[in-house]
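Long-time lurker, finally posting.

We've been working with Restriction endonuclease (Roseobacter sinensis) and I want a structural starting point before designing mutants. I don't trust myself to interpret raw outputs, so I'm hoping someone here can both generate the structure tokens and explain anything notable. Sequence follows.
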Amino acid sequence: MALTLGISNLNLSGSTHVPAAPKEDLDKLPLDLILPTEILELAETTSEGSLIRALAFPWLEILNQLENNPDLIHDFSQSPRKFEEFVAASYEKDGFSVTLTPQSGDGGKDVIAEKKGFGAFRIIDQCKAFCKGRAVSPNDVRAMMGTLYRNTNASKAVITTTSVFAPSVADEWKDYMPNRLELRDKTGLIEWLQGLKDR
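Top reply, 14 upvotes:
Generated this for you. Predicted structure of Restriction endonuclease:
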């Protein structure tokens, strides 16, 4: 059963893709009601996943709410796929060509962000939508580094989380940071997003 709240095209029945709501409707909604809204379009299917295009209004409204209350980022733990889509849309805002990988069988990478041509650069990102208090473990980071080395065409691995990293992680991988590995925790994620706001 769809919950409309006076918004005819915002279906909150739990389906993965809900039509994007107009900006004036999004301005009135809390984050937990915006998350079911579509925040990107799938442009083309490739062997690695789907090329995407970000939808500006939903992406920006989520960012506005996160700026007002950064703890809302933990709402993504209820919808990890939506977090992957939000991160993919953010890379696209940052000027990358972006592929969102399938929900299963992705080989340890959720988002692939590329800049082609002179100085080409390819990032593989694993998105961890964790609740408050749950840290990304050392084994999670080791697994991602294994993914980086299996993907010989990747320039860098990034782990983006709504939470934090276990205390030992940064020290274990300090020789690889920031050129080969980036650990983007909740604070770093919000800082990155704020830098994209006016692009």
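Before you design anything, note these points.
Residues 80-93 form the longest helix (14 residues).
The first strand starts at residue 40 and ends at 45.
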